[in-house]
Each structure stands twice: as structure tokens, then as C-alpha cells.
């Protein structure tokens, strides 16, 4: 990890001193996601309720520019100019580099059909089975660490060789046993856990953006 990338994690702890207990896990999670992207993998994200909203938020920060412009690479710009010259300059001016990420909460048709036909608590797991591959990362969010559908997704991910990063409250709950690393923020109160989760995943997204789109 670049020094400038790690600085975002350090800044998080400076702004939220209580998160110092998570510092080692944060760094491990960042390294895991960096390795995933370097190997051509993607990040799958899941959670329920507020954590479902967080999963969408994370994808939004990874798939487009967060605080950096993420200009397209020169070789892609040239390919656009040669293959579709009439639209190339508009695309070059507006498209941004992306870090592949998918929120598993989006597929309403799939998850409702699967819940009705098969098992309502396996909707995330079914998507991990269909979308995931070895080398990917599952970013599993659960304030309690005990959400059944998140646990099943984590278990299937492990079976497929997918790394699992958990984001939970102080105890980590049952999810800890399925995680390669679990970031356990220092609270047992749901809304306070959620208030810590946002700056945590913002810092991770900033770190990743700097790693892949920042200055060399």
C-alpha cells in the first residue's frame, strides 16, 4: 500500500480516536481489497436495512470518482477515438476510472423470486454463488454480526475461495468465524454502530482510490 493511501486510514483514526482499536483490521482489509483489484477481482457488498443502504453507498464511491477525477488511461482514450470517434471526446471528458463493485441488495426481481421459490435467507448467498469467483472480496455488513442472510453469504464465499471482510459492532457476532478480517467498531448500540460504519468505509474507499488513481 502506498504511503499516501495509508494516510486516509490514519486520518480516520485522528478524526475518530475511538476507532484506534480497529486500526490493524482496517489496514488488513485495505490490503485485501487492493490485492483483489490488482488481480482483476471485484468486491461484492451486502447488508440489511441501513447496512443495505451502506452497501449501495460503497459501490457508488468505488465505481466512480470519489475525490479524484480518475481520468481514463491514454490507451483507452485512443481506443475510443479509433472505434467511436463521434462520441469519443464526450466519453473521455466524462467517464471515470472504476473499481468493480456490486451491491447484492439491488436485484429485487431475483431475490424476491428466489425467496418465494427457494429460501428467503439465502438470497445473498445465491448471488455470491452466481457472481463471485476466487480472488474476489465479499464486504459483509451487519451491525449485530448475526444477520442470517449475511452469514450464509459469507459461508458460501469462503467455500468459493472469496475473501470475506466483515463490518460489525463491538462483538462481531457470529460473522467473525467466517471473516478473514472483521472490523468491529466500538459500540453495541445499532445507530451508533452505523454512525461509525460510514467513516470507516469512506476511509477504505478513499484509500483504494488513492492507491489506483492517485499520484505515483
UniProtKB/TrEMBL annotation:
A single GO BP: carbohydrate derivative metabolic process
SUPFAM superfamilies for this protein: SIS domain
InterPro entries noted in UniProt: GmhA/DiaA, SIS_dom, SIS_dom_sf, SIS_GmhA/DiaA_subfam
Recorded superkingdom: Bacteria
Single GO molecular function: carbohydrate derivative binding
Any single Pfam family the record assigns to this protein: SIS_2
Protein's UniProt name: SIS domain-containing protein
Organism: Ruthenibacterium lactatiformans
Amino acid at each position: 500500500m502506498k504511503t499516501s493511501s495509508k494516510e486516509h486510514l490514519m486520518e480516520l483514526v485522528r478524526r475518530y480516536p475511538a476507532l484506534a482499536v480497529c486500526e490493524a483490521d482496517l489496514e488488513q482489509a485495505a490490503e485485501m481489497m487492493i490485492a483483489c483489484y490488482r488481480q482483476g477481482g471485484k468486491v461484492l457488498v451486502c447488508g440489511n436495512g441501513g447496512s443495505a443502504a451502506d452497501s449501495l453507498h460503497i459501490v457508488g464511491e468505488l465505481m466512480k470518482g470519489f475525490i479524484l477525477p480518475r481520468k481514463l488511461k491514454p490507451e483507452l482514450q485512443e481506443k475510443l477515438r479509433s472505434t467511436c470517434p463521434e462520441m469519443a471526446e464526450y466519453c473521455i471528458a466524462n467517464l471515470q476510472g472504476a473499481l468493480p463493485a456490486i451491491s447484492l441488495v439491488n436485484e429485487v426481481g431475483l431475490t424476491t423470486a428466489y425467496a418465494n421459490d427457494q429460501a428467503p435467507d439465502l438470497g445473498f448467498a445465491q448471488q455470491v454463488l452466481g457472481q463471485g469467483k476466487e480472488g474476489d472480496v465479499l464486504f459483509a455488513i451487519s451491525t449485530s454480526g448475526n444477520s442470517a442472510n449475511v452469514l450464509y453469504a459469507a459461508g458460501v464465499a469462503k467455500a468459493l475461495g472469496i475473501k470475506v471482510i466483515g463490518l460489525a459492532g463491538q462483538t462481531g457476532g457470529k460473522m467473525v468465524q467466517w471473516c478473514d478480517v472483521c472490523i468491529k467498531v466500538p459500540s453495541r448500540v445499532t445507530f451508533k454502530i452505523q454512525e461509525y460504519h460510514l467513516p470507516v468505509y469512506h476511509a477504505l474507499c478513499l484509500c483504494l482510490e488513492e492507491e489506483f488513481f492517485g499520484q505515483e
